[in-house]
Amino acid sequence: MGNFDDVTEYIKELYGTREFIPLHVPKFRGKEKEYLERCIDTTFVSSVGKFVDQFEDQIAQISGTKKAIAVVNGTAGIQVALRLVGVQAGDEVLTQALTFVATANAIIYNNAHPVFLDVDLDTMGLSPKAVSAFLEEYGELRDGVCYNKKSGRKISACLPMHTFGFPVHLDELISVCKKWNIKIVEDAAESLGSEYKGQPTGSFGELGVFSFNGNKIVTSGGGGAIVSNSIPLAEKGKYLTTTAKQPHPYEYFHDELGYNYRMPNINAALACAQLEQLDAFLAKKRAIANSYAEFFNTKGIKFRTELPNTKANYWLMCVELENKKERDAYLEHTNSQGVMTRPIWQLMFRLPMYENFQKDSQKNAIFLEKRIVNIPSSVR
Ligand SMILES: Cc1ncc(COP(=O)(O)O)c(C=O)c1O
């Protein structure tokens, strides 16, 4: 069993404190106060305002997409993105069981069914091989529409998630989904600033979704963004997330069921100030990742680093322990010493509401579930 005293010592030195070290906290070192004050002074704190427009422009630019839609949180963004690609009640959505619960919840909010497929060991995200194997066994194309032969349901989307900011194998996933005519929505909640072959995550699927929750690399307090290279899809997204109201100088006419999922201007103001610091945050996180990589290498503990041809944003950094016993000892030791660490999520099918959905072997997901631990990753 490892002795983890020097791990906690190292992390305390790295963060220059003997106090409790959280997993991830935001840093407000830019124009946050100034922009928030501007909202209050102008009374534009709510559903419209200049910061919402500015935020949308900045996100489109950062994600390399044509349009971004600011929404109330990432979960709502994924819910709407799935609807936008045509997910309807009773359809199926292919996704990973190794994820934060919001990914699966967003599927259920559309009254659709998740199918949980395995992840790759190297990316920790949805495995194109697993998707392909599943579709070869159960997929059936009828008039260009993919159905699951086992359930009889239509498979209308694939929802990969870029775990902790490490991009999934996008080229391979896109090729499989193309073959089976399945639309991709990227759950890029954790991966703002990450790249795959030089292109930002979130820009590969029909739509991508980011989160700006307080624990993310950049925060709006709470918030999300849907991005797309399809202007019609993005415009429909804006429409649906702003109550589906037909434009009119004074009449209220809503021609379908929309949502009040707008991001308030006051949240966008915070995000705009934070986005101005994104490059600095990315650089600082990379420096922390380099220090960790060097240290954990000397300890014989595997620190997860980006794969070739990708750039990770190092949002939440993690180590891979030898087995569950080591993992538990590591968690116990670090947390008792005031260094916050957390295991990766429990797999979705272990949660009561997700027990009965179709899944594959989950071999890699189960392996990672027993070994991956997140370590303090805040910008210093
Ligand atoms: C993978 C993943 N998907 C979705 C979400 C949902 O984002 P939000 O908290 O903004 O609703 C999060 C984070 O919170 C996440 O980590």
TrEMBL record:
Keywords: Aminotransferase, Pyridoxal phosphate, Transferase
InterPro entries xrefs: DegT/StrS_aminotransferase (IPR000653), LegC-like (IPR026385), PyrdxlP-dep_Trfase (IPR015424), PyrdxlP-dep_Trfase_major (IPR015421), PyrdxlP-dep_Trfase_small (IPR015422)
Entry annotated with the keyword Transferase: yes
Example GO molecular function: transaminase activity
Entry-linked Gene3D superfamilies: Aspartate Aminotransferase, domain 1 (3.90.1150.10), Type I PLP-dependent aspartate aminotransferase-like (Major domain) (3.40.640.10)
Record keyword Repeat present: no
PANTHER family for this protein: BLR5990 PROTEIN (PTHR30244:SF30), TRANSAMINASE (PTHR30244)
NCBIfam families: NHT_00031 (TIGR04181)
Protein family per UniProt: Belongs to the DegT/DnrJ/EryC1 family.
Protein name: LegC family aminotransferase
Organism name: Psychroserpens luteus
